[in-house]
Amino acid sequence: MSEISEKAKSLKMLIQIGMLASVYAAITWAVAPISYAVIQFRVSEALKGMATKRKWFAYAFAVGNFISNLFSPFGFLEYTWMPLWNFIGAMGAYYLSQKIHPLIGSAFFAASITFAVSFMLSFVLGIPFLWILPFIAIPEFILIVGFTPVMRRVVDQLEDLGVFVD
Questions:
Q1: With bands split at pLDDT 50, 70 and 90, how would you rate the model's confidence at 88?
Q2: What is the CATH code of the structural domain delimited by 2-160?
Q3: What are the b/e assignments for 48-79, b being 16+ CB within 10 Å?
């Protein structure tokens, strides 16, 4: 019986990852012109504060980022580099949130994504890294760090409703 419950738990986790990844991608696509610009404001980044609550959200943000970047004009690095950094940033956010404070964790996530996007755009477009950095950092920190308290509350509410379960 425990083997069945372990399989059911794994399936449930996979479904939850798919749900969150889909929501991230859908929001990114809904505001597509500003999601993919050099000076971007990817509204879906606000969801990333959720990573401070659950370790498995790292998978959801990596997959969601991969899916949302299928329509990006910046090519291959968007399908490889950015999902990797989303996973790294989300795992770091979770662990720092547990050890120090959720806002420290979300700041790590924002800094990770700021570095990764700035590096990628600098590489792909030939624009100096330090020129791009502030245009990426400002919206990342506003959306990820600024919305972390709200997203943590959303996770709590979804847990109460039985949507997110371990």
A1: very high
A2: 1.10.1760.20
A3: bbbbbbbebbbbbbbbbbbbbbeebebeebbe
